[in-house]
Design brief:
CATH architecture of the domain at 48-117: Orthogonal Bundle
CATH class of the domain at 48-117: Mainly Alpha
Distance between the termini: 37 Å
Number of helices: 7
Radius of gyration: 20 Å
Shape: extended
Strand content: under 5%
Number of strands: 0
CATH topology of the domain at 48-117: Arc Repressor Mutant, subunit A
Largest sheet: none
Helix content: 55-70%
Order of helices and strands: HHHHHHH
Oligomer: single chain
Length: about 120
Amino acid sequence: MEIPTVFAEWSTTTTLTFGPRYSTGTEAMMGTLPGYDPDPSLYELQTLREAVVDCLDQLGAEDRFVIEALWFEGITVRALAERLGIHKSRTHRIAQRAVNRLGQVCQCHPTIVGHLRLGGAS
């Protein structure tokens, strides 16, 4: 069964553009249009990246291996299951557990908590 979809006028005429990345928060604020929140500066993004790396370092070896394989290598759960020699559904549960553990560790990191508390999550 087909359902006709009426697209909004803005959805067919709007193009997605990315602006420049600013080095500091002041530059980001000066380069932002009135009424919009500034994008995080490169310095802010770097401190968040370092905080996430700190959190990854706190994980166990298995959790870190799974997250690095899926997120940084970009392999699929199926490929990871073959690498580990276990069933795909079991691998998916292991991956979800690792992500949940990373989330729990990130909830305790002061840099990440401060960023989220200030409304820095965009």
